Every structure is written in C-alpha cells, then in structure tokens.
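ARCHIVE CARD
Drawer: 12
Card no.: 0347
Subject: one protein chain, sequence and derived structure
Cross-reference: see card 0346
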Amino acid sequence: MNEAAPTTIESFDILRILKSLPHRYPFLMVDRVIEARGDEFGIGIKNVSINEPQFQGHFPDRPVMPGVLLIEGMAQTAGVLCVNALSSGKGAPLVYFMSIDKAKFRKPVTPGDRVEFHMTKTNRRRSMWWYSGLAFVEGALVCEAEIAAMLVEDGPAKV
C-alpha cells in the first residue's frame, strides 16, 4: 500500500457512531470509539450492562456476554473506522460482514465489564476491508478474531 499512515487520532461519541452505523438498541455493540487513526486502527468501547436483553437467557443465574456479540462489537468498531475514513458526504454506506476467521474466546465477559475492541486493518481492496481484532477487559485478552467486511452504498440489493 502506498497510502501514508494517518497521524491524526480521533475519537467518536455515540452520536457520531449512530450516524455511521445503521445498528440501534439492542444490537448496537459500541458505545464510543476512544482512538481512531483513519481506517488503520481503532479502539471501540462497549460498557456491558445487566439490563441488556441477552442476559435474560444467557445465562440468567450466571450472565455471560455471548461470544457472537463480542465479534459483532469488533465488526461494528471496524465499520465505524471504514465509514468515517471514506466520509464522502453522501451519507453513510452500509457495512456487510463477509467473514470471520480464527475466532477464539479466552475469558467470559460479564455485566459491569468494559470491553475494548482493538481493531487493526490488515488489507483493503476496493470496497472490502480486512481487520484483525483483539478484545480486552481490564487488560486481559477475552476474544480475538479476523474479520472482513464490504461497504456498499445504500440502495436496492443487486443480484
């Protein structure tokens, strides 16, 4: 890649995230992005609360955040980075998940935890992005995965 690495570090509050992603409660898994360097790297934050609906059934007597929602938090963090790096001014494109590879779950995440999603871009071709993700709680690795996504302009699906 011949692109210069971005030197500006940004942060995105919840209002900027809501403008970047179509997700809404209860499926929005990122509360804030505390560090973003273009689409190269970012750290998304998820504050896990007992009030979230998944804890009614997973598992009520010992609530554990479902691993698939940790992966979704990684994907949403990467999506915010991609959408904001493009900033075409025409409105946010949609981000579609393409693949998940090498997912590993190291420790359970429970209500009261603050999850940090550390996302690093590994490749980009046209409208497709690949990221390596690590999720931490209080410095301990809880989840890791490689993900890929595609950005498309909002409009009718093409077959």
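Annotation on reverse: The domain at 10-152 is CATH 3.10.129.10 (Thiol Ester Dehydrase; Chain A). The CA atoms of residues 20 and 84 lie 7 Å apart.
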